[in-house]
Structures are given as C-alpha cells and as structure tokens.
C-alpha cells in the first residue's frame, strides 16, 4: 500500500455545544482519489477546513506525508502542499485570472515579475493537465466551470500535491462535471492526491478509489470503491435503509389540467429563452422537463406560473387562460389551484429572516383560516405550522425558529409543505431536491408521487437526470429553449443525454 | 487678455479649492477599496486641521503641525478601524460618531486652550506652508498664455498642493502595480478569497485605514496651515462629504477622482467668482443661491450623470469567517 499523503488521528472539534467532528481517524493514500461523503452537516466540510487551517482542531493530530504537522492557518496548509477548491469559489470577480492566481503568492512587492512568472506557469499547467483558460479574462465573464478551473490552477500554482475539492459539482452542468472528473483523473496520474467531498453517490462510484463515510460528526466507514455499492453507502450515510428508486404504480392520466401552447419567452436582453413550446399535463401524471441548466426551463416555469412575461402563446389552467403579461396576480393563481415551488428557495420561495411558521403560510396568509378579522390569527398559524412540521418531519420541530437556521433540506420541506398542503390541482416544482440530503430526497419524492396518485398534475423541472427518470411519467427534453423530444421514463440516460446536448451540438456541449 | 487672466484666476482658485477635496477623496479611496466605508472623512479632516493648527501655533512650525495633524487623523482612523474591523460594528454609525466627536471636541479643546471662541491663534509665516515659486516663474510671467499658465497656474502653490496632485499617479501605481494594491482591491471585493490565500484580512484593512488617516491629516493640514492661517470652527464645511460624492462619481478610481474633485472645485470657485456679479439674461442672483450651486449640481450629477457606480462588493460588510 502506498504511503499515506494525509493521516488524521483522533480529530475533535466542537462549535459551542455542537460536536462537529468526533474522534476522526482517516488515512488517505498518496496518488489516489479519495471520496468523503455524508449528509449536510455530517462534518465533512469542518474536517476539511481543519486540514486547510481554517479552523484548529480541539484535539488530534494531522500527519502529512507521515510527518506530524501543525496547521494553524491556510498558509501552513499551502506550505505543506495542501490546496483547496472551495464550494463557493474564493475568487475576486472583477479581477483577471492572472490576478486571482497570484493573489497571496505574489512573491515580491511589485507585481510585474510575478505576473510574468504566473503567465508562463499557467502555460505550463495548461500543457501538463489540459487546464486551458485565458489568463487575461475577467472571472465574472467566465462560466462557472472555468471559474472552478481557475481555483484548481490557484492551488497548483502554489505547488499543491494534495487537492481538496468541496462539493465541486454542485454548480456544474453534467458535461462540465465530466470534464472536471477527467482533469482529476489526470492529476491522479501525475501523482497528485485528490480528496473529493460530496453528497452525490454517483460521483463517488464514478471516480474515487476509496471512500469514507461520515455521519453526525463521526467517520463511520472507509471502503474501497470497487468493493462497495451505492445502496451500502447510502445506508451508511443515513444510518438506515434508503430506497433510491421510488416505487410507483402506473399513472392514470385524467383530464388535461394545464395546457401550454406555442409559448415564447424572451429574457431582459431580448434573447429568446423559450421558443414556441407546447405541451399538456393531465390530472394524475408527472411531466418532467429535462435539460442542462440554462436551456429555458427556468423561464418556462416562471412564465407558466404567471411571474414572467411571455411574448406569445397561451397557457390554460383548467380551460381558462392565465395572464401571461407578467402582471398576473400570483394570489389569484393560487386560488385557482396552481402552486409553484420555485427553483431558488432562498430568494423566491422563502423569507429567511421570518419564523418557520410565517414562511409556512406565506402567500396563503389571507386565507380565512389564518385570519381573525383584519389580524393574523397567530394561534391558528402556529398550530397549522406544527401540523406541517410533524407531517413533513421538518427539523428542528420549532415553528418559531428563524427559517435561516434550518438546513437546506428542511427549508425545501417547508416550501413543499406550504404548497402541497393547500391541495392545489397543479403543482409546478423546480429542482425539488437541490442541496437536499439523501434521506430527505426519498421523502420528497414520495410526496410528489402521492400528489400524482391523488390525481394532481405535476410539472417537474430538474437538472438531475436520475430524478427526472425516476419520477416522471413523461419526459420532455429542452435544449436551447425548444422541446427537442418527448420520451418515456424507461428511456436510457445516454439517449436523454444526447437530446439534452442537442445531438448535433454534441461537441459544443462537451 | 483680460479673459485669459480671468480664466487663469478661476482655474487657480479651482486648484486651491480642490486640494482638500482631492486629498480626502483619495483618503476615502484607500479605505473603501479595502471594503471599509468611511463617512468620517469630514471628522478626520476637521480634527487634523485643528490638531495641525494648534501644534503649529504652539511650536511655530508648519512641519510639527503637519506631523501632529497626521497623527491625530490616523488615530481617529484607527478608532474607526477598531470599531468596524475588529469589532465588526456598523461602519456608517462609527463614521458618523467620528464626525460628531471631531465637531464637538475641536471647539471645546480650542476654547479651553486658546480662549478665542474655538479658533486657534493666527499662525505666523513659519507656522504655515508658504507658496512655492517654481523656477523661472517670474521670468515667464509676461510670455502670453504659456507663460501665464506656468506662472499663474502651476507655480505659486503650497507644498501640499503638489503633494496632493502627485498622490494621484502614486495611488494609481500603488493600487494597480504593487502587491499591496492587489490585495487591497481584493479584500474590498471578496475578503474570503484573501483569507483563504493565507493573508490577514484585518491587518490589510487596518493598513488601508491608516493610509486614509494620513491623507485626511494632509487634507486638514492644507486647510489650516496653507489655505488659511489657523483653525476656525467647522472649517471643513462638508468637504468630507463632497469628497465622498466625488469618490462615487469617480467610481473609486484615482484619476477620475482627480477630475471629479477638480469639477467640484471649479463649481465652487465659479460660485465665489460670480457672487454679486450680475449674470447676463438673469440679472443679479442672490448670494445664497450661488453658494448652493455646487451642491445642487452635485446632486444632479450624482443622480443622473454617472451611470451605474458599482462600489467594492464587500464594502460596508464586516468580514466574518464562514463555517
């Protein structure tokens, strides 16, 4: 067995009363790709922050290449060859790639020489690892995939031998993610050690050599990836058996609930985002819209929900048209039985500074059951929130807690509970499980299937192909604003992937 | 000929009026580029002016006055830094507090020390920065236009005026050509990027705030030791705020900052010049309106003419390490 690049022994770390890491032991062999998985809040990021010197462990030892090392600041970590690619990029947006790369590693007081040196070094890294990026481009003008590449270059420029990536694919399209994995593979072949933190099981299976699972601050298992299965890892992560495939019966489609005809939407710059799209959704079926993010799904969803102006086309809800001027009254649409779970729960779905109970009635706060004359009936609202908390297993079970203090999965459950419990006829859901843990994903999927079985029409938009395939009764694929195909749920991932890439545009999507 | 004289006259006073604006504006630039908003430029200038005048009066030396002015101003900048960097306080509140402290304490201390109703004693020539005649200024005085410009406009200013205008290219060079400048700009945009690169956010911001203190100290010194001969209560009269407006107008860039300050200075000089002179078509305009003109134009310019001014992204936000 190769010598360990990193060895962690008995790491403990507490934040107040919360024990984020307990007695962590971990060995990462040199020249391998090592996955660390766990649900949100399992302590993965804390552990890596300790390794990168962002925090100091309360106790325990870190050995780098067999030597006990005291890492107090990111500088110490960089000095022993540890580099980190953070989940939220640590880049200065209006700086050039070069400026970002040299920041903190300038060498001398004047910039001229260090910029020249970085320029030639970037050329070398480009040749060696295929990490192409224009050194003079501004970060804000680069797509996220390239921004991430700059983060990797930053680490390599500082001589990193051990590269930690924290949830690197969260912001990437599938094609970008594949490209990233190829780069990581190449880094491994050059003898670098890669640590990949994620909660996506597929990524672990696809690329890692070994995988360690964390749960509630402890390291519960380390496995050779080739000797484990997705099911085993999911069970280790959650601590109980998880159904990864949702079980569902045959759909029994009824009358058309939502009819979209020739819908065209342009964005604020006048670019056509949705191009002459038509489809129907019947009662008792889930229609999934697959596509790489940015191909018009968001705009379609917003237009159908009446919050974005459409240039032309009609949308009929139960046979009556929806106002598509962008001036529709969302309250009226709710009254007509159209519920919308927006993609971006932080900005559109929730007011994070409000209590859980306030968010759980937002938009429905003028319903008589929540009112007492002109005032809010706070007792009724609390009671209602408490019921939803129990039904949806929202944790912590405290309706008075500020919504910002809930985890992403629980915030999503708050939005879903609010919309589903109003018993809408049509539910439009965007990215229902983005940033949500495996256990909660299972729950959310079962709720959506239950909606369908109650005879509701569900429009599901998601960039997770697995989710689309396991939930939908029909799949529409969007590419460049158009619906380029309709398929059944049994369609292979490869075929859908080709459609999503626009087939003949395959090279462009790579 | 008379027109050229009048023009040079106005431009000359434009320069004189612009200098404190320019120094304060550059001062604000250092701080705000590093992500620390500073509404307390006014207070630091005022405190600097008072401290400089008091020290110059006691020691009869302009240089000691300058030194004390800078020290006091840097001290106040550090208070602002302590509140907003170390203790992550609200930067606007801290800045306003600095303005109040300066406005009140200069009068109280001035009265207690000199008993002249809050003024400092009139400074002797050695307590002031005199006018510097550039070589050949007298000889060239009679050469039309070029000579007039040289002797009437470029020559004959105090040392601090030249320092202020040289500080413009110097600031540009620091910001865009040095390591310190790169980091300073980075910390105002994304302090987390600086932190993860292994650089101390707090120390970097403190250094920026110290630069601000030095420059506001120079601005105060100019007003008390060069433009005037001593401190008069409230002598900065809102220039710190105009400097902030100029900074926004210039989108936090040094060279545009100079032009913005010259523009505001020009409006000021023009309003002084036009006081009491009847204007064609309009006739005699009340003095008060002329005095208000630069401020009215400031509002109009800021409201309509600068387009989108994007402040440093991390401006006003204390840096807290995220989990």
TrEMBL record, chain A:
UniProt entry keywords in alphabetical sequence: ATP-binding, Cell membrane, Membrane, Nucleotide-binding, Repeat, Sugar transport, Translocase, Transport
Cellular component terms per the entry's GO annotation: plasma membrane
Lineage: superkingdom: Bacteria
Location(s), subcellular: Cell membrane
Membrane association type: Peripheral membrane protein
GO molecular function, one term: ATP hydrolysis activity
Domain ABC transporter: 6-241, 258-505
Pfam families: ABC_tran
Xref: SMART domains: AAA
Principal localisation: membrane
UniProt record similarity statement: Belongs to the ABC transporter superfamily.
Protein name: ABC transporter ATP-binding protein
Organism expressing this protein natively: Aminobacter anthyllidis
TrEMBL record, chain B:
CDD domains membership: TM_PBP1_transp_TpRbsC_like
InterPro entries tied to this protein: ABC_transp_permease
Residue stretches spanning the membrane: 7-30, 50-80, 92-114, 159-176, 255-272
Keyword Transmembrane helix: yes
NAD listed as a keyword: no
UniProt subcellular location: Cell membrane
Sorted UniProt keywords: Cell membrane, Membrane, Transmembrane, Transmembrane helix
Record-level GO cellular component terms: plasma membrane
Coiled-coil region list: none
Pfam family of the protein (one): BPD_transp_2
Domain of life: Bacteria
Annotated membrane topology: Multi-pass membrane protein
GO terms, molecular function: transmembrane transporter activity
Name of the molecule in the record: ABC transporter permease
